[in-house]
Write a structure and sequence with these properties.
Helix 5 runs parallel beside helix 6 and helix 6 runs parallel beside helix 10. Helix content is about 50%, strand content about 15%. The protein has about 290 residues and is α/β, with parallel strands linked by helices. The two termini are about 30 Å apart. It folds into two domains: about 160 residues, Rossmann fold; about 120 residues, Dehydroquinate synthase-like, alpha domain. It binds nicotinamide-adenine-dinucleotide (NAD).
Length: about 290
């Protein structure tokens, strides 16, 4: 990702050596933030990787699920970090899905006026969307993502082996955001995905490729419109107007975000068809997936 002086790597690799060869040698202390579900599955593994290499590691675990993006959890993170001796030279790590990446990103942006942070996404949605681009946020009582800042990580490490423990519904949730990139940008990528979905089997190579394509498109857009000021970044919101309406109307209980986006893209295509802004063939393609 090339954002002038804030350029950073998005590493797609299952190799821990690749990761440790990139992280800053001068950082000695890491503050790993994760949620209650991921803590049970992957926290010990990551902590050990760091400790084996001589780093200090402190951890904090927030509530899993959308409720985790709360002022209460943010406040818990500030207290926990201070108590653990996390200072301006420390680096926060977001180990998790979009909930952790949004909350930990906001924490990193504001703790001691901003400390470094690394994204290690563990859901397909986070690997292709929320871990890149620097949007961080928490929810307030009456609104989603109301408090937040743009704050870019120093590194994103996408390791698809984390997906092995992810439930199938969450995989499908991420696929919806991936196909969104194909609809917006790339007909060839759409055909590739269409073939893949016919087979129903997705290999590691396919995951790496889909993630690579999605991240590349997101990075290209964010590089040109980091803070959504010139309208370009808004193209990534395809389907999101309807999706947010659907999520709000159902109190975030019935649909995962990607599921709402999939329905939202269909509604948006239907409206375009009605307004004669898209062809029947285009609508059919959206409907198929
Ligand atoms: N900042 C952005 O640009 C951006 C973009 C898209 C979405 N988002 C935000 O992302 C959030 C949704 O993220 P999400 O879909 O990743 O949901 P999530 O973070 O809630 O994760 C989904 C569930 O999967 C569990 N989980 C995560 N990784 C796992 C793994 N490897 N194995 C087993 N279980 C695992 C989590 O504990 C959780 O229960 C929303 O709050 C949305 O607003 C942000």
């Amino acid at each position: 990702m090339r954002l002038k002086e804030r350029k950073y790597d998005v590493l797609i690799s299952q190799s821990t050596n690749d990761f440790f060869s990139i992280i800053k040698k001068q950082t000695k202390t890491f503050f790993i933030i994760t949620d209650t579900n991921i803590a049970k599955l992957h926290l010990k593994y990551l902590v050990n990787l760091f400790r084996q290499r001589g780093y200090n590691v402190k951890t904090a675990v927030i509530t899993a699920g959308e409720d985790g993006k709360s002022i209460r959890n943010l406040s818990y993170l500030y207290d926990k970090a201070l108590e653990a001796g996390i200072d301006r030279k420390s680096c926060a790590i977001a180990l998790g899905g979009g909930v952790v990446s949004d909350t930990a990103g906001f924490f990193a942006a504001t703790y001691m006026r901003g400390i470094d942070f690394i994204q290690i996404p563990t859901t397909l949605l986070a690997m292709t969307d929320s871990s890149i681009g620097g949007k961080t946020a928490i929810n307030i009582t009456n609104g989603k993502n109301i408090a937040g800042v743009f704050y870019q990580p120093k590194l994103v490490w996408i390791n698809i082996s984390f997906l092995e423990s992810l439930p199938e519904r969450q995989i499908r949730n991420g696929l919806a955001e991936i196909i969104k990139y194909a609809f917006i940008f790339d007909y060839k990528f759409y055909n590739y995905l269409a073939n893949l979905f016919e087979n129903e089997i997705i290999s590691s190579k396919d995951f790496d490729y889909m993630i690579y394509k999605s991240c590349s498109y997101k990075a290209k857009v964010v590089e040109q419109d980091e803070k959504e000021t010139n309208g370009l970044r808004a193209v990534l919101n395809f389907g999101h107007t309807y999706a947010h309406a659907l999520e709000t109307a159902t109190h975030y209980k019935n649909f995962l975000h990607g599921e709402a986006v999939a329905i939202g893209m269909l509604f948006a295509a239907q409206l375009s068809l009605k307004l004669k802004l898209c062809k029947q063939e285009t609508y059919n393609k959206v409907k198929k997936y």
